[in-house]
Amino acid sequence: MSLKILFVCLGNICRSPTAQGVMEKLLADAGLSHAVIVDSAGTSAYHIGAKPDQRSILAAKKRGYEISGQRARRVEFEDFNDFNLILAADSSNLSSLLEDAPHEARNKIKLILDYSNCKTKDIPDPYYGGEAGFNNVLDLLEDACRNIIKQEVCS
Predict the structure, then answer these.
(1) Of 40, 82, 120, 136, which is the most buried if we count CB atoms within 10 A?
(2) Catalytic choice (15, 53, 73, 90)
(3) pLDDT digit string (tens) for 97-109?
(4) CA–CA distances in Å: residue 48 to residues 3, 13, 42, 52, 117
(5) Quick check: is 53 catalytic?
(6) Domains in the chain, number
(7) Catalytic residue at 125?
(8) Model's pTM, two decimal places?
(9) Full residue range of the structural domain in which residue 72 is found
(10) Is 15 known to be catalytic?
């Protein structure tokens, strides 16, 4: 059985699609794509069907990640059963997920940065900021995704 990871942010157009792209590339580079299914979603329905934010696409592309083919979707009830690990971008989205999740699924919901070496636990939403915010998101996600692979895939 493959490990299935769902990355979640508010609208599924900045942080979570970037996380999906980073994780998919790191897995491919390590020859581990076959071992993990990766997806992303949002806790809101603001952008269903939309591409990731253009600034996310550009920042990701500069580092070799391709995310332009993704489309925003909202977390669905089935996701709580389908995924082994559901990782929220920040504490607000974590709270939303825990509220919506069936009791038996709550132990698989964590913050993405629970896997990071940094002190902060919330990935800041870059939507209202500039290029530096999108690069910061990538820095945080690269660190966390490497650790997710070490702790959850290669353990």
Answers:
(1) 40
(2) 15
(3) 999 999 999 999 9
(4) 25, 9, 9, 10, 32
(5) no
(6) 1
(7) yes
(8) 0.98
(9) 3-153
(10) yes
